């Protein structure tokens, strides 16, 4: 019996509000109203899988192997990891690099995510740096390679995904080997019992079902690490242009972005009333610096305060009441910027794989004449 017959109902019961894009590799995202909370509930958090969920018979017997460019290769049980290293909790946004891909024109290959492949959670685990230092990082180590047992659908010999981190990010204090999410054991759908948490990096770098970390003397070349996979062009490319891998670089830090969670597209409001516009803004390595809102389709903008977030990698809430104005169409937009002066683009330049779309979101509704 295909495993999806068991797993799809499980996904639907654990995450009832999600739109399922792919029933075999279980890919699903929430509608934006479900994301209107500072900490995204497990039931609303998107899931992204490049292959079939791995069969995990006994999660308690899980081990993590550390090998490659280290002085002392090691095999850790879950209990030994917890006992040996300090447990820390880091609040961080997890966003798929393909979030918003459906907005690119012409359409690119890949899952046609709307805007919901993002969430903010409290991740609990041990620092990856502590585990690597315990093994003794050799001077030649420049990259990690992460491994997991999930396999491509119909190709059991091929890993679904095996990505890694530049050694500096692997040793950064925010990067974790996580076993908890929002105060609960890390759910299997989110990579339990162990996953990488790489705050600010695209979701693809957050390896799920982590069972081996191999330190490398070169950039990791595992599944979905080569060619144009999770890479952005370093020069503008036109649709149809021949692709040269030399023109691409691995996506590391995600760009500054915001999400309007209220109102929903297609809203109505009475003339003379106000409309509450709320949502979140976040950024990768460069700190978030501010946000502006427009309620006239981008002709004018006003700065709106961002509430403090739970640390530098969490998203920050904004909420403002804007006048609805006269009957007609009302388009609200949010535009965040970071401390280096990067602003969300009004139109995202096209790229061949449809990654990193941080274009300003437009939410349109109708202002209707006030009843009698
Ligand atoms: N083993 C494994 N890890 C993985 C993936 C995968 O297919 N297999 N997908 C990655 C991608 S592309 C994303 S966006 C995140 C999604 O994490 P989530 O499913 O917990 O939301 O997991 C990442 N880790
Ligand atoms: Mo992703």
TrEMBL record:
<dbReference type="InterPro" id="IPR005066">
    <property type="entry name" value="MoCF_OxRdtse_dimer"/>
</dbReference>
<keyword id="KW-0560">Oxidoreductase</keyword>
<dbReference type="InterPro" id="IPR000572">
    <property type="entry name" value="OxRdtase_Mopterin-bd_dom"/>
</dbReference>
<dbReference type="InterPro" id="IPR008335">
    <property type="entry name" value="Mopterin_OxRdtase_euk"/>
</dbReference>
<keyword id="KW-0479">Metal-binding</keyword>
<dbReference type="InterPro" id="IPR036374">
    <property type="entry name" value="OxRdtase_Mopterin-bd_sf"/>
</dbReference>
<keyword id="KW-0500">Molybdenum</keyword>
<dbReference type="Pfam" id="PF00174">
    <property type="entry name" value="Oxidored_molyb"/>
</dbReference>
<dbReference type="Pfam" id="PF03404">
    <property type="entry name" value="Mo-co_dimer"/>
</dbReference>
<protein>
    <submittedName>
        <fullName>Sulfite oxidase</fullName>
    </submittedName>
</protein>
<feature type="domain" description="Moybdenum cofactor oxidoreductase dimerisation">
    <location>
        <begin position="250"/>
        <end position="363"/>
    </location>
</feature>
<feature type="domain" description="Oxidoreductase molybdopterin-binding">
    <location>
        <begin position="51"/>
        <end position="222"/>
    </location>
</feature>
<dbReference type="InterPro" id="IPR014756">
    <property type="entry name" value="Ig_E-set"/>
</dbReference>
């Amino acid at each position: 019996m295909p495993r999806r017959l068991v797993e799809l109902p499980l996904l639907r019961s654990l995450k009832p509000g999600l739109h399922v894009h792919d029933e075999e590799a279980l890919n699903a995202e929430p509608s934006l109203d479900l994301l209107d909370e500072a900490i995204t509930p497990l039931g609303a958090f998107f899931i992204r899988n490049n292959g079939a969920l791995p069969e995990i018979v006994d999660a308690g017997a899980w081990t993590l192997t550390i090998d490659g460019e280290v002085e002392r290769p090691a095999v850790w049980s879950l209990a030994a990891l917890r006992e040996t290293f300090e447990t820390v909790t880091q609040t961080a946004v997890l966003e798929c690099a393909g979030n918003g891909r459906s907005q690119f024109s012409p359409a690119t290959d890949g899952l046609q995510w709307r805007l919901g492949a993002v969430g903010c959670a409290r991740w609990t685990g041990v620092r990856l740096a502590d585990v690597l230092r315990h093994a003794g990082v050799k001077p030649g180590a420049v990259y990690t390679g992460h491994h997991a047992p999930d396999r491509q659908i119909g190709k059991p010999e091929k890993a679904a995904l095996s990505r890694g981190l530049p050694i500096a990010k692997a040793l950064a204090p925010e990067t974790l080997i996580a076993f908890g999410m929002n105060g609960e054991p890390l759910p299997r759908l989110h990579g339990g019992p162990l996953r990488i948490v790489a705050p600010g990096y695209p979701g693809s770098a957050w390896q799920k079902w982590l069972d081996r970390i191999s330190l490398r003397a070169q950039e990791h070349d595992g599944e979905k690490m080569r060619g144009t996979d999770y890479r952005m062009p370093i020069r503008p490319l036109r649709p149809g242009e021949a692709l040269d891998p030399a023109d691409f670089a691995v996506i590391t830090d995600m760009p500054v972005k915001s999400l309007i969670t209220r109102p929903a597209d297609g809203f109505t409001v009475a003339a003379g009333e106000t409309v509450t516009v709320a949502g979140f803004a976040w950024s990768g390595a460069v700190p978030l610096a501010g946000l502006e809102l427009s309620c006239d389709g981008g002709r004018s903008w006003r700065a709106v305060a961002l509430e403090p977030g739970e640390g530098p990698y969490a998203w920050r809430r904004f909420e403002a009441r804007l006048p609805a104005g006269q009957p007609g169409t009302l388009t609200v937009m949010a535009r965040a910027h970071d401390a280096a002066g990067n602003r969300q683009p009004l139109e995202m330049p096209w790229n061949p794989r449809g990654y990193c779309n941080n274009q300003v979101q437009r939410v349109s509704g109708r202002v209707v004449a006030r009843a009698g």
